[in-house]
Amino acid sequence: MADLFETSTDNISLHLKNIYSDEELNEMATTEDSSVVRQEGSRQVTRQVKHYNLDAIISVGYRVSSKRAVLFRQWATRILREHLTQGYTLNRQRFESNANELAAALELIRKTAQDSNLLTDTGRGLVDIVTRYTQTFLLLQRYDEGLLTEPLTQAGGVLPTLDEARQGLIRLKADLIARREATELFANERGDAFAALLGNLDQTVFGDPAYPSVEAKAAHLLYFVIKNHPFFDGNKRSGAFLFVDFLNRNGRLLNKNEQPVINDIGLAALALLVAESDPAQKKTMIRLIMNMLTQGA
């Protein structure tokens, strides 16, 4: 490390001591003692030499004051920025069969984030989504099971009746009109489209539920309301309302820390992503929503 960062061994030792005393890293987890045979004068002597892993080297690189260390930090910052703005760098040779789905999702997020009408708060929501989504990807890749295989879910899920859903939307509409944020067209149904949508979510296939979990029902409810346009106006807001109402009915609106599994900003960004997505990306969007619900639990 002294050679790498063009500084003294004493300086490296001091930084390592501070790194471990500050509990920035765990010494046992980042070092390993090895026996090494060394030539000392005319003798060959076996010595215990401490080896440091990459985490320790990187931490030292961010503390050392030298021209070489400055170059290292500039390089590391550039790589980090590229990862955050362009998506994670993947080992394509190993993960090619899995990476296409992640690339499609990140491209959709990138495209949506460039919308000139995007609000600052919604932009922060997009950052939250990409962070949680890529974390899901990395965890799943560790098991090499495929990009977004369905997570562990909670079986069941009680949907609102058609009348309950309609009454909820009527109350939402009245509130929005009172705040001059909607017109009389809001949540007006297109024929039987909304009734059919709820019926499809509750259907069975060969005796088993077509959507067997809370997460699956919630994800499809949000997706279908936004993409199938069962209302003349306000499909994104109606979908978001029904999504939250469904989670609340099934005790999944709050996590174990009594915090919303998806906050208002994140939900607005998620609804925007669904609206902007290509129908061919349906599978990706559904899995994204399901994984976010399980990670937020």
Automatic annotation (TrEMBL):
Q: Which PROSITE patterns match?
A: FIDO (PS51459)
Residue ranges of every copy of the Fido domain listed in the record: 147-291
Which InterPro entries does this chain map to?
A: Fido (IPR003812), Fido-like_dom_sf (IPR036597), Type_II_TA_Toxin (IPR053737), Virulence_RhuM-like (IPR011204)
For this protein, the record's Pfam families field holds:
Fic (PF02661), Virulence_RhuM (PF13310)
* Superkingdom of this protein's organism: Eukaryota
Q: Which Gene3D superfamilies match?
A: Fic/DOC protein, Fido domain
Protein's UniProt name: Fido domain-containing protein
Query: What is the organism of origin for this protein?
Result: Linnemannia gamsii
